[in-house]
Amino acid sequence: MKSKSPRNRGLLLFDYDGVLVDSLNILSEYTTVFCREHGLGEGLNKTDVDAMESATLSGLIEAAGISQAYVRDYARHLFQALNRDPLKVPLFKGIPEMLRGLARHYTLCVVTANHSAIVRQRLDAAQLTSLMDCIYGNEQPGGKVEHIVNALEANRAQPTSTWMIGDTVGDIEAAQNAGVNAVAATWGWQSSTRLKSKAPDLMFEKPQALHDYFKNTWQQTTAKTGIPR
């Protein structure tokens, strides 16, 4: 992890599942196995995922129809499965290049409903952890709104120069409630129509498009302010 960044750097906060890693199919597979083993139906389907208000563990539990009696077992099942084979969850195409490029000009953090140990393990495998100034996971107190505020304070960032990049309506709402810019990534868990309904500030269909936008924004800002490149 890097030290605190200078005040003139923008802050980019990335959700993990559905933005950096293509985890939906794997999570659906693990959930289906659990549900079948416990006689709880067939698990997740795309329609249920798109309708979720919150892409958190509780959101997955509700979408899959897992009863309260099995919540702890399901959480343990997911954590163990993801830790057992982190490389089974692939990074989206272009993510390593995007992160390496943006880290040259912005402060990068992860704000996720996943456990930070799982995030670190996957990013370590791709040699990307060192690009992140902070990783906020579900084992830390508070939800995404609180974690966004914590990241702002820890990195001495301004809300106007901070962007939360997520793939669910819950991510967009968290950004809006924390007072930062909301960016929708349509390559993840929820559809562009669903994301658009929450009026994000920006919307991108591919990591390369997001990379290009923020690179150009940085170049325009430095040209106006005269900050050395």
Automatic annotation (TrEMBL):
Listed Gene3D superfamilies: HAD superfamily/HAD-like, Putative phosphatase, domain 2
One term of GO molecular function: phosphoglycolate phosphatase activity
InterPro entries in the record: HAD-like_hydrolase_sf (IPR050155), HAD-like_sf (IPR036412), HAD_2 (IPR041492), HAD_sf (IPR023214), PGP-like_dom2 (IPR023198)
GO biological process: DNA repair
Organism field: marine metagenome
Pfam families recorded: HAD_2
Protein name in the entry: HAD family hydrolase
One Gene Ontology CC term in the entry: cytosol
Signal peptide (from-to): none
